[in-house]
Design a protein that fits this description.
Layout: H1 5-22, E1 34-35, H2 39-48, H3 53-74, E2 82-83, H4 93-100, H5 104-113, H6 122-133, H7 139-148, H8 161-172, H9 175-184, H10 193-206, H11 211-220, H12 224-227, H13 232-240, H14 250-259, H15 262-273, H16 279-288, H17 297-309, H18 316-320, H19 323-326, H20 329-345, H21 355-362, H22 365-372, H23 378-393
Antiparallel strand pairs: 1-2
Helix pairs in contact: 2-3, 4-6, 20-23
């Protein structure tokens, strides 16, 4: 029996379809380039995390080549590119980090901070690093993040990745700011998007902090997402500062009050009340200089004790000139005040008295030397300089016994 021509055409069509189906990767080699993968590729990457190791390796090769082709067609600029996934599957996790650009010392540090990464699935590590590369994170960024947050790569950063990045791009407005925010606080990729991140953003918007100001505060205060909480007492404190929503200080007052515990705020208010200030005066100081809320009670107490007890200035001076609370006692306040007394004892001019003393305390050191030390003859200038350096070299009692605490992310 002869086969009809239509049957031959159907068989040929099925054969060509089967070849294209089982060979999804083009045989023509595509030059390796550094690309931003498209959104469709991101979705495919996220889905690939639940597949087998061999499937993930093949899928990454396909996605990287597709992204490379898209970038070459669209002319993606070099500054927005990230490294393409390697064709050769990694041997172990160390090989993954090495191909990523980490040195041997950096890899040793990573394994020291998180030993379980030595035994981690290299394909899984590779897939997570490729996700992070879409955000522009480099090997140095990864090392810094793991050093401060060792368990970072153990979290499921692929969860809602597409929606999360889309929301962050709308929030920050550019990839550069998003990259900076993630390096400052990598937990942005871990926090729950709806119940944590979006809720906090909407909370500050409801309190009158616009998104551009909020993004600046996220960069300067990474704990905004994790520590924000408001209650009636905090809202009353914000009202008592007297800062309006149109003021430039408003966003600082609201954010610093939001991330501080109520007990901490009450402790800092009570600490200043010990020096004769009323609650309204203290909160007014917070409104004019919100960063006073970031000072420890010990620093404020030591500076105020020296200003009142040794310098004999009125307590009101700290309200009018908050730099007296911010200045370093051992490096600025004490040596400059003692130098002013030395100049007065020697009968030299100009002397540092009255309002000029407060001006001298705010000067940069070079300007301070030119104004009050270098203006004298060389012999006197050397004597004053040696006296100043000796005082400045004196260390605070028991400061050498302080323990060095390695910095960690406070969130």
């Amino acid at each position: 029996m002869k086969t009809k021509p239509r049957v031959w055409i159907k068989l040929r069509f099925l054969f060509s379809v089967s070849r294209s189906f089982f060979n999804p990767i083009p045989t023509t080699p595509i030059a390796k380039t550094r690309v931003w993968a498209p959104v469709a590729a991101i979705s495919t990457i996220t889905a690939s995390l639940n597949e087998t190791s061999s499937a993930k390796s093949r899928l990454w090769t396909q996605i990287s080549r597709t992204a490379a082709t898209t970038a070459l067609v669209n002319g993606t600029p070099d500054e927005n590119l990230v490294e393409e996934a390697k064709d050769d599957p990694p041997i172990d996790s160390a090989d993954v980090f090495r191909k990523w650009g980490c040195s041997d010392s950096e890899i040793d540090m990573i394994f020291l901070r998180r030993p379980s990464l030595c035994r981690a699935d290299p394909d899984l590590i590779q897939s997570k690093l490729n996700l992070l590369s879409l955000l522009g994170l480099t090997s140095s960024d990864i090392v810094k993040i793991i050093n401060r947050r060792p368990r970072f790569l153990s979290y499921r950063i692929n969860m809602c990745f597409d929606e999360r990045i889309k929301f962050f791009l709308e929030l920050f407005g550019s990839r550069e700011l998003l990259h900076k925010a993630i390096v400052r606080n990598p937990s942005l990729l871990i926090y729950d998007l709806d119940s944590k991140i979006k809720r906090v953003v909407e909370l500050y918007e409801g309190m009158g902090v616009p998104r551009p100001d909020f993004t600046l505060m996220v960069l300067s205060r990474p704990t905004v997402m994790s520590r924000t909480s408001f209650n009636d007492e905090k809202l009353e404190y914000i009202r008592m500062t007297g800062v309006s929503e149109k003021s430039k200080m408003y966003k600082y007052v609201v954010v610093l009050m939001g991330i501080s515990r109520l007990e901490t705020i009450q402790e800092k208010v009570g600490n200043l009340e010990k020096f004769g200030f009323s609650e309204d005066e203290v909160l007014g100081l917070f409104g004019r200089s919100p960063l006073v809320l970031t000072l420890s009670t010990d620093k404020v107490q030591r500076n105020m004790t020296y200003v009142l007890g040794t310098m004999k200035l009125p307590a009101r001076a700290a309200l009018d000139r908050p730099f007296l609370l911010f200045a370093n006692l051992e490096a600025v306040l004490k040596p400059r005040y003692l130098l002013a007394e030395k100049i007065e004892e020697m009968g030299l001019a100009p002397q540092i008295k009255g309002p000029k003393l407060l001006t001298a305390l705010r000067m940069k050191e070079d300007r301070f030397f030119r104004a009050f030390v270098a203006c004298h003859p060389e012999s006197i200038s050397k004597e004053l300089m040696e006296y100043y350096r000796n005082i400045k070299g004196l260390k605070r009692l028991a400061v050498a016994s302080k323990k060095n605490i390695h910095g960690r992310f406070p969130f």
